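Changelog note: in this version the structure field was regenerated for every chain. One regenerated record is shown below for reference.
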Amino acid sequence: MADDQRKETGVVIKDGWSGYNLELFNYPEHYRGDLECVYIPHGVVMNRIECLARDILEDIGHEDMMVLCVLKGGYKFCSDLVESIKAQSRSANRRLTTRVEFIRLKSYLYQPDCELKTQLPQRTSAASVGVHWVIVTVRACVLTGYRNTSANIFLFYIPSQNDQSTEDLQIIGPDDLSVLKGKNVLIVEAIVDTGKTMRALLQHVDTFQPKMVRVAGLLVKRVPQGNPSELPDYVGFVIPNRFVVGYALDYNEYFRDLNHICVISETGKQKYKV
């Protein structure tokens, strides 16, 4: 996704970085005892986002842009990034139109010991049952039930909601992404680890024939399965493989209300475990 020069622009946080003492910062009292440290203060995050916005504007010139925000964790990053892009564009007396679309990505736990009893289609439309998403990849092993009638397909699934990444991807989003055709597209994702999810999303977006696709990732984790050649085009911070929360990043829907990016403690994991 990115050339060598662009990859080096992320702020690299070393493996030994222990973060800041929590007592030096304000944070919600109800999370006391649930966090190890403040890893990246909110002010540092905002300053880095301004730099990313500058780089994006330098690349796209005066052309309009479609922004594809990956929810839920990416909504704050996307909002602040788009606002910074608009502000810098106005300061430079440039007219730039941005349109934002929202998608969600879900991974599901694969259980290799289960038995495939029913052949499922590779792509299954759910429009017939009145919901606005498409299952791109489905494995029967993650389903608690399956029923196919002449009118509808019913799928019942178990999501993986704890601190692990899985390989089965569901893309939930607008009915029609054909608006991406011929457009400059910026995908905004809060955190990238192995890159498998982003690779699947890029393949999906490419089917709509955009003019150009770029990816902005606030955090990139150094993980054993990661591929350095698949870094986002715009990188905020490169961090060790630690479980971080805050700035809309959650653990089972908690901690989104933290302004700072923090490391969750083992106590916090147990407290909010599903």
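Spot check on this record: The two ends are 35 Å apart (CA to CA). Confidence is low (pLDDT under 50) at residues 1-5, 109-166.
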